[in-house]
UniProtKB/TrEMBL annotation:
InterPro entries: Cu-Rt/internalin_Ig-like (IPR014755), Glycoamylase-like_cons_dom (IPR019282), SbsA_Ig (IPR032812)
Ranges of residues in domain SbsA Ig-like: 40-129
Record protein name field: Glucoamylase family protein
Domain Glycoamylase-like residue range list: 314-528
Annotated keywords: Signal
Amino acid sequence: MASCSKSNDTTAPVTPPPVTPSSFNFDALRVNNVNSGFTYVNLNTAPVIKISFSEALNKTSVSSAIAFKSNSGTNVTYAATYEDGDKTVIIKPSAALQYLTKYTVSVSTGLKSAKDGSLQSAVTVNLTTAIDSTDKFPQISDNALLDLVQRQTLKYFWEFGHPVSGLARERNTSGDVVTTGGSGFGIMAIIAGSSRNFITRADALVRMQKIVGFLKDKAVKFHGAFPHWLNGATGAVQPFSEKDNGADLVETAFLMEGLLSARQYFNGANTAETTLRADINTLWDGVEWDWFRQNNQNVLYWHWSPNYNWDINMQIRGWNEALVVYALAASSNTHAIPKTVYDNGWANNGAIKNGASYYGVQLPLGEERGGPLFFEHYSFLGINPNGLTDAYANYETQTKAHTLINHNYCVANPKNYTGYSADCWGLTASDINNGYTASSPANDVGVIAPTAAISSMPYTPAESMKALKFFYYKLGDKMWGDYGFYDAFSLNEPWFANSYLAIDQGPIMVMIENYRSGLLWNLFMSCPEVKKGMKDIGFSSPNL
């Protein structure tokens, strides 16, 4: 009989497959015992970050898998402790973090569990520390603070003025590029500085002689109007853009606003001041305002190019910063415009009117929520809005309303930007991180410009002074430099400019002075031509 034997079974034993450790997951996050997603702001300088996972951790993997870095990429040393059976790691920086600085805590998939599993998805925690609320400078009286801000801001135009022409450089990195409109603001700043004895009247006169001589004898002009930018050494055009390489009537008006104020200030009977006034009159009378109607239209045009003629084709219509263009065009001794150009051109037959209310304030003129605040600064460095009316608005009401809407918007802070408050407000054109924009409630990118609130001091003195004190005392270590306040900042990013712009520094100096003494308003409004011209186009004011 045949039989089977176990010794004849040749089947090999089966080897079990290797066991792969299961992955594990992020479970929860708390920073200073608060859960707020993955982004935390206004933190103290010793935050406690608790990150929980679905499995106990392999502690030896933590130091290589969890990185704590500043926004600049610098590693932050930290201590790690554990709780909840090692499922939660507690991260504490070994030393205090910097104020107003962004940090990240990054957990890579290299993090291991006690069972040698891998973290399924990486985790990033964004942290931003709070402002240091201590004063950066000793407290001084309000008057002493205003003196300090004016004196320091004047240095941009006085010490940093172009050595050949005396004109204002466009910005602190502009080399030989000077700005026409910003130089008009700078002239007014120099007058205020002389009046306050920050510089002597004699020195101010010498600087004005240099500026006016350069403008008269070297600077290129087109039908009496100046380009936006000039070479401060040669007087040649520095093109603003390809086709913007000729006359800029708005920049010319800002320059004339300053020159006419200087003419009224230097009123002495001596030869030097008499000659200065005559030279300013030559420049003033040379501007062919009516030629910029482009073939006698009832509107003024912003640009003209010797190469491209009227190609830019930009009409000057309100409401914006250019009211002074029409005021001066109507005031010209030689090339005046009639009232119909103001009514049809600037006022657009009444279309500049608004009348709606925003944030509890009715706005007489302009775009929704007012636009950037420089609309209420540039023309009103010289034009006194107090008691000023015409067929379209009360300009005292307009300037205050626009400013309060901007202030109230920042206090309401509908975009929840870090730092916006009654202490920290003001949206206008300024530098932003890696760019430039005209900030406003309709274009709010989280950037505050000190010039916005400070240059509004004649309209909102309490609100503006509150902001000025915040910028100086609380942010002074980051925002105060050789020429006063840097251009702009964001507490949301955070980011701080290291730039100065003539068109932002000038209004700070001039509008503080108008708030304190009305000096530039009084000078500009004392011009006989301005009195007549503004009346001719329908303005009424005790100052006309």
